[in-house]
Amino acid sequence: MNNATVLTNLKGLMSPVPGSPWKVDRIDDAAIVRMEGRIAWMGRRADLPAEWADSPATDGQGGWALPGFVDPHTHLLFAGDRSGEFNRRLHGVPYAQIASEGGGIRETVRATRAATVQELVELGEARLKVLRARGVIHIEAKTGYGLELEAESRLLEAYSELKRRGWSLDVTLLPAHDIPLEYAGDAEGYSRIVADDWLPELVRRHPGAASYCDVFIETGVFTVAQGRRILDAGKRLGLQPRIHADELSWTGGAELAAELGAASADHLMFCSEQGMKAMAAGNVTPILLPVTTLCLGMKEWAPSRRMIETGCQVALASDFNPGSSPCLDPLLVLRLGCLQLRLTFEEALCAMTLHAARSLGHNDLGHLQPGARTPIALWPVEDPLELVYWVGEAYVPSVSF
Ligand SMILES: [Zn+2]
Q1: Measured torsion, CA atoms of residues 187, 192, 197, 198, in degrees rounded to the nearest 10
Q2: pTM of the model
Q3: According to CATH, what is the number of the domain 69-359?
């Protein structure tokens, strides 16, 4: 009746519980009812309400049902790659030297500026297919490898085309990802042109395309004052702030995120105690990016346990980018969340689903409770803990509903 389908023959399901930050429901031998694109009921198969007993069934093939992952921090669109530079670094060449020779992020900016919208769309779609096949059903995606008006505009155009093709993503404007060559030594001038000219122009050209604005606040890049100017300009255009904060040193990025009512502060390896308290009080989601810490070879993992103790609802993300996280593997994020950030499996699951979705304003993603519209990932495991325990195993889910 009434277009309902029942997902059954499940070993079980695990789902965060909205409203209870770290609570996870675990139900063995479960069934899930979907109706009008949303979950109408979930529970033990034996308790399936009579009204759905005769509805068409989908075979869960004995797998475990988890909400699809949400990745709340990616730099999805860029051209070129930096594998050559990566090997030079393995041979001991410092990043500063590579950068001074025009490599590093500048190489990506050059390649991205040279790419057409069509090329960017194809690159983005190929990456989204990989993510989807690995259980990621929604992402946040940033501009930021254009660093000039026209290239940033092409990135926005490409993201809009990906949305038109049906991909589920939220877009963040990040022209202040770095200081481009044209403004070398003039972060102040660059932050002014981004705030005063580029953001209004990008929103005028692509109304509704972006939801957020981001700045890389870091020693030697943008100061808190420059970040505030850009993010305030974004807010006047309806873009909520997200911040690359306290990644390589403490700069007060988390505190600024709380002051501005940001959706998230991201990285946070050097976050202060005060910054954590401010984020908890201001309902800012700290987004931790452990693959970046791994790839940069850093010893300082974000103080995740302290954040949770302080009351923060921590999320995890890939930080997919060609320099410090060339990684489209959500299981690596999950595993590092447990093994290095010392989250429990249940906490890491919440961080990659419920809290990631909430940081993007999607209360109907990231869980399997009634009302959710999330696609469901069916994992071929005896127990979900295997996803972390068998640390190198390349499990592939099927995405259902
Ligand atoms: Zn990033």
Answers
A1: 30
A2: 0.97
A3: 3.20.20.140
Q: Which CATH architecture has domain 5-67+367-400?
A: Roll (2.30)
Q: Where are the domains of the chain?
A: 5-67+367-400, 69-359
Q: What is the pLDDT of residues 234-276, one digit of tens each?
A: 999 999 999 999 999 999 999 999 999 999 999 999 999 999 9
Distance separating alpha carbons of residues 94 and 113, to the nearest angstrom:
25
Residue 239 CA to residue 324 CA, distance in Å, equals 26
Residue 322 Cα to ligand 1 midpoint, Å, equals: 10
CA of 75 from ligand 1 middle (Å) equals: 6
Q: What is the C-alpha to C-alpha distance for residues 373 and 366, in angstroms, rounded to an integer?
A: 9
> What's the CA-to-centroid distance between 204 and ligand 1, angstroms?
25
| CA 131 – ligand 1 centroid, Å | 17
Model confidence over 94-111: pLDDT tens digits?
888 888 888 889 999 999
Nearest to 161 by CA among 202, 201, 119, 200: 119
Location of structure tokens 């009302």:
371
Q: How far is ligand 1, taken at its centre, from the CA of residue 390, in Å? A: 28
pLDDT at residue 5 greater than cutoff 90: yes
Q: What is the DSSP string of 110-138?
A: HHHHHS-HHHHHHHHHHHHHHHHHTTEEE
CA distance 229 to 234: 9
pLDDT of 374: 84
